[in-house]
Amino acid sequence: MKSQALKNRIMTLSLIFLFTLILTGPSLADSLKERMKNRLPQITALKAQGVIGENNRGFLESRGSTNAAAQNIMEADNQDRAAVYDAIARQQNTNAANVGRRRAAQIAEIAPAGTWLQNDQGQWYRK
Q1: What's the pLDDT tens digit per position in 84-111?
Q2: Strand, coil or helix: what is 125?
Q3: Looking at CB atoms within 10 Å, which of 10, 52, 72, 106 has the fewest?
């Protein structure tokens, strides 16, 4: 039951996030969405292994030494996240840092158990 509720919540928040992406412009949204979707299984696996976590600014961060492939995946996703946050910030008349912090809070709420997260004070914890 809880697993299905979590999946529904993740889907809802992801749809809201992607809808906002779509509003920022079709070509940007399509390419970012596709790249992020393609990386998601690898990111999920790296999080499950504890190799990377979600920081309090809405970005992925290494939780120790990562191999080159993991580092590349993390950096590519962070670049796309930065572009998304920037586009949303322009649309909402705010700044990308605020958007990232809001997204970090959403991610922390829906993250599965075992995910490394960073609290507002910068301390890491495992959910």
Answers
A1: 999 899 989 999 999 999 999 999 999 9
A2: strand
A3: 72
